[in-house]
Amino acid sequence: MNTETCAPSEAAALREIFASHPDAVPPAGWEAVRSFEAEHGIELPEPYRTFVAEISDGLRAGPPDYGLLPLAKTPSDWGEGRAERLLAQPFPLTEAWLWEGGEEDEGEEGLSDEEFEARVEAVYNHGSLLLGTDGCGMYWHLITTGPQRGHVWLIDEFGAIPFGTRPATLRMPGTPGFAGWVARWAEGRSWFAAG
C-alpha cells in the first residue's frame, strides 16, 4: 500500500465507482485539501488525498451505511463534548484491540481505569479522520498519522479492528487502505465475510 502517491489504477477505480453514484459530492479541490492539511499539521494519505481533491468529497449513501463524510466532518451521532480530534498525533494501535474479553486485550489488565480511558480516547481521536458511521456507534476511521497511516479501521464500543487484515480471532478481509475499503463496499460484500 503506497500512501505517498496515488496509483493511476486506484484513481481510475475510484472514479469509476463514484461516477455511478449521482449522490456523490463534488470534489473539494486541492486548495481545500491543502488548507485542511495545514490546519491539522498533516498530509492526508493517498489515494484518499487525491480522491477528495479530484473525485468526490463524500457520498450521501455508503460507504459506510450512512454515507461517506465530507472532509473535516463528523457523523451526526458523534455527539458533543468529546475530546478534541488531534489528527497529527500518532494513532496508538498497530493491531486489533478489544476493550474487554478476547486475546487482543491481554496485557491490558495492568492499566488503571484512567489509563485505560485515556488509551480508548486516543484510539477514537488521535491520528485519524472520520470516514463515516454504520450507526450504533460504529465509526470508520482513516489513519492519518503513525505506523497504520493509510489504513482504515472500524472503531466501536467493543474495540478497534483494522480493515484488510485477518487476525486469528477477528476477520475483516479485503485489500488494506482506502481504495480497497471502497472496492469491497462497491462489490456489495460484507465487511466481515470471508473472501
UniProtKB/TrEMBL annotation:
InterPro entries: Knr4/Smi1-like_dom (IPR018958), Knr4/Smi1-like_sf (IPR037883). Pfam families: SMI1_KNR4. Residues 31-158 form the Knr4/Smi1-like domain. This is SMI1/KNR4 family protein.
